[in-house]
Design brief:
Layout lengths: L1 H22 L14 H19 L6 E4 L5 H6 L13 H15 L10 H28 L3 E3 L4 H25 L4 H19 L19 H10 L3 H25 L2 E8 L6 E7 L6 H24 L7 E3 L2 E4 L10 H7 L5 H27 L4 H10 L2 E2 L7 H33 L5 H26 L1 H9 L2
Antiparallel strand pairs: 1-2, 3-4, 3-7, 5-6
Length: 477
């Protein structure tokens, strides 16, 4: 009996030790001010963005071969540059978020995310998982020869990758607490913006030489279009023009879809005659589902490539040709370029089935992660009802009862979550299939992130220009 009691006490001590570790992990200290000024947030956001580009151009010391250099589109989604010190990118952060959402959403881990301790415990657990993924991915990248080290330098390369992963985690924290948006979103935008500018206007060829002084094709599609028209190369001109037009169309469609929303009328309980309209965007979970699904697909493709490189022969996960999956499970996670195939005369009926499977997988993944995100991020109907009532707001004509407000919000939030997740998955898949200057999913992510950042910056600027507006909003809380 005494032994049992000792075992119980030891188990409790272990649980307490784990909780203490999670609650006291190294973190970026929160600002002393409750609301940071616009100039301060802008300064920190730009500083971290510049630091990201600097780190992306610091090569790994002791690297012998970079087998991942052909996965440029995956590097954009993961917010990284392979062979640099931050080769892991946002992969560890996103993977830890995916696993935790699945565990919490399925109730395998029971956490009260409405309490302060529950949120802090969740954040600590996510950071711990991200650090463990930094260790795991660093070892896998090197030992499976994705980033092959010089013999005898394996440990040094692994250590550099791990430290780079930690830097990304803490830079993400700095942006979340001191800047606009989040670091993961900022790194994706930075990588996508740089790649888009290069693919549109770069006068260099793949070897980095000026294309006018070599026989290799130019990278920039603008120059390709001009040269093709000048030399009467119809096929190349049509392919370049289709890529440019597709990119513009994707931008316009995404910007238009961002403006679709449902407005719920709310009134101030203390101030009669005053009210606001609370917008519920059609993309209720914003860009989060696409980031999670795209990062999951990207990690799976990298794992398949590493497995093939390590084994020395194709595996059931997939076979690659020049960085493009051509067979196996991973090929279904890579979209075919239908428009380009039609222009170049390489269209096959199998591409239709491939396109449908890819679109269904992306849409299903976005819907699942959209629901999990709403459940774990405190944006479900119950949490929103409680926040609205705590702010002194209510729906006109209804009692100030959280259950009543929750039932009304449930009519909008969950349908918007599911439909918005499916729609954003459809847009991402369509953008990939049409074929743009860069990966369609990357363009979708960049446009939605920039739109979200613009709204946040505009709101912050309005508060700084009109301090009375902030007082009116805070007086209702």
């Amino acid at each position: 009996m005494q032994l049992s009691c000792c075992n119980i006490n030891n188990n409790k001590q272990k649980k307490m030790d784990l909780k203490d570790i999670l609650m006291n992990l190294p973190e970026v200290k929160r600002p002393a001010e409750k609301k940071l000024a616009f100039s301060v947030k802008l300064k920190w956001t730009l500083t971290i963005l510049v630091a990201f580009f600097i780190l992306a151009n610091i090569p790994l010391f002791g690297l012998s071969n970079n087998a991942l250099q052909q996965f440029e589109y995956l590097a954009m989604i993961l917010g990284t540059k392979f062979s640099s010190i931050i080769s892991l990118g946002i992969g560890p952060i996103v993977m830890s978020s995916i696993i935790l959402q699945l565990l919490v959403g399925s109730k395998l881990i029971n956490l009260d995310l409405r309490s302060t301790d529950g949120k802090k415990y969740f954040q600590g657990l996510q950071k711990m998982l991200a650090i463990l993924f930094c260790v795991f991915e660093s070892i896998v990248y090197v030992l499976m020869k994705g980033l092959e080290a010089i013999p005898g330098m394996e440990l040094i390369v692994i250590l550099q990758l791990f430290l780079g992963g930690l830097l990304v985690i803490f830079m993400d924290e700095v942006v979340s607490k001191y800047g606009f948006g989040s670091g993961t979103s900022l790194f994706i935008v930075g990588g996508v913006g740089w790649s888009l500018f290069t693919k549109a206007f770069s006068p260099l060829d793949q070897a980095g030489r000026l294309a006018w002084f070599s026989s290799s094709p130019v990278i920039g599609k603008i120059w390709t279009l001009i040269n093709s028209v000048a030399t009467a190369n119809t096929i190349e001109a049509m392919a370049a023009l289709a890529a440019i037009i597709s990119t513009v169309v994707i931008f316009l469609v995404i910007v238009y879809a961002q403006g679709i929303k449902v407005e719920v009328p709310l009134s101030f309980g203390r101030l009669r005659g005053f009210g606001i309209r609370w917008p519920l965007n059609f993309f209720y979970t914003s860009v989060i589902p696409v980031i999670l699904v795209s990062a999951m697909f990207a990690n799976f493709q990298i794992l398949a490539r590493l497995a093939e490189s390590w084994a020395g022969y194709p595996t059931f996960l997939g076979t690659f040709s020049g960085g493009t999956p051509v067979a196996g499970l991973v090929s279904w996670l890579s979209p075919p370029r239908l428009v380009e195939a039609i222009i170049r005369g390489s269209f096959q009926p199998e591409l239709i089935l491939h396109s449908l499977v890819y679109m269904i997988l992306l849409m299903a993944g976005c819907m699942v992660f959209a629901v999990f995100w709403v459940k774990t991020s405190g944006t479900d109907a119950e949490s929103q009802a409680r926040n609205i009532l705590a702010s002194g707001l209510q729906i006109p004509g209804f009692r100030r009862d959280p259950r009543v407000l929750e039932s009304i919000l449930s009519r909008y939030i969950m349908p918007l979550t599911v439909m918005g997740g499916a729609a954003i998955g459809f847009l991402a898949a369509s953008a990939d299939l049409i074929g743009a200057l860069i990966d369609g999913t990357a363009i979708l992510l960049a446009v939605m992130i920039i739109y979200q950042l613009y709204n946040e910056i505009a709101q912050q600027h309005a508060f700084d220009m009109y301090p009375a507006l902030k007082k009116v909003i805070s007086s209702s809380k």
